[in-house]
Amino acid sequence: MNKQERIRHLITREAARLMYEEGVGQYFDAKRMAAKRLIGKQYRFHPKYLPSNGEISDALYELSQLKDPATHEERLYHMRCRALEVMEQLAPFSPRLIGSVSTGRIREGSDIDLHVFTDEIEELEHYLDTLGWRHERKTTTINVNGRFVEHQHIYLNFDYPVELSVYPLRELRVVGRSSTDHKPIRRLSAAKLQQLITDEHWSLHIKSG
To answer: How do residues 151-178 score in pLDDT, each as one tens digit?
Structure first.
């Protein structure tokens, strides 16, 4: 392992630790905080030292397994069960589970990320009101190839926080790519999530009745 690889490895591990132990929420922030702590401001001139989001994600998963694998599995199981309950209630909006609860790479502070589909966000909000679920809407703006695009998000407050990313109906069959590893985003329907719970958490599933 040469010097560049050693520094990159150290930054990767520190960034993962920052996210796991200190609650840093974004890969972007974690890698830069880690680099600044380890090599100072010069990292700005050597971007080759900065790991990818995927590298940090792998290190974060390894760290969570090392700390307490039994607790990790139990928490993942309960988060997936909660996600399934929410998805079943939101069936009219074709919910799809994405993110760490889908992949299994949860950490402290992870939430449940769902994509939902409707051409009228007010219809979704009214539906949430009928369920008696408290919710908050936020708008984010991102730059996509030089074009600013607005995205609507709705946040639900359960035992595990739930974020609904709202997309138009035409995008139901459009699969985007992950910002972490640039691979197609894994999106699970309620039926696929139910099967995943049965396959990966059968012992806990039996105990819970």
So the answer is: 899 999 999 999 999 999 999 888 776 6
Q: How far apart are CA 196 and CA 198, in angstroms?
A: 5
Q: What is the pTM of this model?
A: 0.72
Sheet with 112-117: list strands edge to edge.
96-98, 112-117, 162-167, 147-156, 135-144
Structure tokens at 170: 């035409």
Place of tokens 């001139």: 45
Side chain identity, residue 98? I
Report CA Rg, the chain: 19
CA-CA distance, 194 to 191, in Å (whole number)?
A: 5
User: Taking every pair of C-alpha atoms in the chain, what is the biggest distance, in angstroms?
Assistant: 60
If one counts every other C-beta atom within 10 angstroms of the C-beta of residue 173, the result is 7
Kindly give the pairing relationship between strand 135-144 and strand 147-156.
antiparallel
Instruction: Identify the structural domains of the chain with CATH numbers, from first to last.
Output: 3-67 (no CATH), 69-207 (3.30.460.10)
